[in-house]
Write a structure and sequence with these properties.
This protein is an alpha+beta fold. 50% of the residues lie in helices and 15% in strands. The chain has a two-stranded antiparallel ribbon with strand order 1-2.
Length: 107
């Protein structure tokens, strides 16, 4: 990536109070929305799944997939979408131990 583009994305993220991951996820969701025309966009994201002290020292592959679901209805501004995605990401990480089928039923 171009250094100026990366710096601009980092600056935007900092200004909006989100992580670079949240900014990039939001941009990806906008792209999916534009191509698909759908307002309900879900993206799976792998996480290390090492939230428990007991498994931190274990060797192995403990990947879990979190589904980041966003509602793009109402033509939100990018700032509004960032705020929605931030809430979704923080909630998903907070509840990553809940099985996907139980998490998905919340929606």
């Amino acid at each position: 990536m171009e250094p100026l583009l990366v710096e601009g994305l980092r600056s935007l993220s900092q200004r909006e109070g989100v992580t670079l991951y949240m900014t990039m996820l939001s941009a990806f969701k906008v792209l999916l929305h534009r191509y698909s025309g759908q307002e309900d966009i879900s993206v799976g994201s792998p996480v290390a799944n090492r939230g428990r002290k007991e498994v931190e020292g274990l060797v192995g592959f403990f990947v879990n997939t979190l589904v980041m679901r966003s509602d793009l209805s109402g033509n939100p501004t990018f700032g509004e979408l960032l705020e929605r995605v931030k809430g979704t990401v923080l909630s998903a990480y907070e509840h990553q131990d809940i099985p996907l089928n139980r998490w998905w039923m919340r929606w």
